[in-house]
Design brief:
Four copies of one chain form a homotetramer. The first copy, chain A, is mainly alpha-helical. In chain A, α1 packs across α4, α1 crosses α6 and α5 runs parallel beside α8. The longest helix of chain A is centred in the N-terminal third of the chain and has 25 residues. The structure holds a DNA duplex.
Chain lengths: 204, 204, 204, 204
DNA sequence: CATGAATGAGGATTCATTCAT
DNA sequence: TATGAATGAATCCTCATTCAT
């Protein structure tokens, strides 16, 4: 009678430990043995749960992304106006970088390693594309309803938002946090709100 | 009489080639032999001009940083008002990411994977620190003169600007460019300008 | 259940093989792959048991030194008179060079070329210092009790003995053995005995 | 009209500088560029005067050995009795290690590298053989004339003398000098004299 | 299932030697 | 003759992955 274990659960437990190690040492700087040691299991055991090193990263990234996607829709649908939805979305992403801070490091690691593996053309545009799509639609709607300054190019603006999201993550990764997170979040939101929203309409 | 070579010039030529290789293959994914081959020289020759792999990057980084610092002051000093200076500074950095695109991409790549051994004399925090200092001073001045919305926390705002700078670079690294650069630059500048500047004062 | 290996025993087996390779090819001339091949294992496996090349030697050196130190005290304490102890000590060291011939040869080889980086924890001077200390004390005692010719300077004489020890080893390394070892040992002992001991007292 | 230089003289000047570098860094630890730099010439120039790195060492060794051989005969022939000749010879060699101290380091380096180069059988016995031959003859003569203790095996004793010579050199190389050289020399000579010479005969 | 011992491909770096000038 | 720029063979060491137990 084989020992019965919840493979899924153990995989999650392992990758969760791995995440903290990745966070500390960076993905390329982390050895499989580091992970095994931190998880208190044998090196070989890792391969019972994951195909290879990248697979651990991928697994944890997927968790991150799934949660992100699911929560995103929820966050948007609370509000009704396009501009409100848009701000809610942005606020959500900023909050998400705080809540899933450890994963954000992985997020960067994931892209870097993915880029390195595939000589050319590993395009993340598909993943980002989804996000930009949502943003663009909201911007368009907001511009049509007069809530958002029509002077903005929707594609450029949505790309900017995604870039800001990435930037906040990586800058924190590089320098650590120097400013209080919630203050930082509010600052960012204010800047975007002031910069984008047509005041008369919002207030009216 | 020996062959006479302009060592400085050749070092620059090599590191310049190396940079494009780093861009294509990523820093960790680039072998010294790749660089040598691309530069049309022997592997050993690299070590006549550079201490090690990181030294090649450091060399280009210095060039980048020197140019950045020098141009920055120039860009700022054209204008007189704090808010104008601030916008000029932001505009300059955005333009700089376009002009030095390869360098930016490679640094992001390097720093996001180096983490573990970030002590080799790449003055990342020094560069960011300097930048934030300048930003904060301008924001403060602008707030005192009433040009910039006093509701903003200067430290948070300057960190946000630097984050946006990083974000633009890394997002481009991940996805390539999907939006016209100049349009993108203008969009970012507009958002920041609208979001931060007190209109009455500016127009007055 | 993993393969269980007596790491200590395997390390000794490997280093033991390595020693013979060092002896044959010289320390600098021995490649890690030579050792691996001779030991019938993979190159990487060496690093499971030893930090680096020098560590293999260090391991054998420790074994040698431990055995040397332990046996030394034993050899001395059999006799009671200082002069007898001294001769026993010298006799012991001469015998030791025969018994541990390979080790001796390799150390000479190592130390005569290492010079530049003699800081890695080979306690050469410590070993010599200890030895000279013991020798000097015995000589002094012997001189006080009238067994040893008081004309000798104790420090110089003990340094001479250690030099002879080194000389016997290195000469054998260079030329191989041309004279029967036991005869050689006896000759050396006689010379020293005759040269140092005050006859009247010994015989009396 | 070519620049006329005394090739021999320049070679000697170079190898003389090289010697001091070898002494300091050891032969394997000395780079050709180190020598060139110390000699104030270009790296390539070394190859105008020497076939390769080993050739520089060999050159300097030859100088040493030639001087040694020539002076040796001189030293011996001053005295007439075998035992006096023998002691003079030993005294000469001891003095020689003091006078040619720098070369002694090279002497060891030379043998080590020679051993490393030739997988097997690089036998120094020919060189040492000459020395041992002389020693053995003197010992035999001394024993026949009753000056030297007939209990000694001449071959073993002469090998011992050569070993002591080597030992003094290498021990000094390892540990530096701790005892005054002249005192050390006298001590060694006394030990040998007392140990070997039949007193009655010498004095008689 | 679990393990960790074994592996070897892979890469950075060194340095004696060559050779164009 | 003198040079030093260029070279690439050679070697150490790392670490993801495999597999016998």
């Amino acid at each position: 009678m084989p020992k019965i274990v919840d493979k899924k659960a153990k995989a999650r437990a392992i990758s969760s430990v791995a995440l903290t190690v990745f966070r500390k040492r960076g993905y390329p700087g982390t050895r499989m043995s580091d992970i095994a040691e931190a998880a208190g299991i044998g090196k070989g055991t890792l391969y019972e749960y994951f195909k290879d090193k990248a697979d651990i990263l991928r697994f944890e990234f997927d968790r991150y992304f799934e949660h992100f996607s699911a929560s995103l829709l929820e966050a948007i649908n609370k509000d009704s106006r396009p501009s409100e939805k848009l701000l809610a979305l942005i606020d959500f992403t900023l909050g998400h970088t705080i809540e899933w801070e450890d994963h954000c490091a992985v997020y960067m690691d994931y892209f870097s390693s993915a880029r390195a593996d595939q000589d050319e053309g590993f395009s993340l545009s598909c993943m980002y594309g989804q996000m930009k799509e949502i943003l663009m639609n909201l911007i368009h709607e907001g511009q049509e309803s007069g809530e958002i300054d029509p002077a903005f190019n929707a594609a450029a603006l949505s790309e900017l938002f995604v870039s800001i999201y990435d930037g906040i993550i990586i800058h924190r990764l590089f320098t650590g946090q120097t400013v209080d997170r919630e203050l930082f979040r509010k600052t960012a939101l204010n800047l975007i709100q002031n910069g984008m929203i047509v005041q008369g309409v919002m207030k009216g």
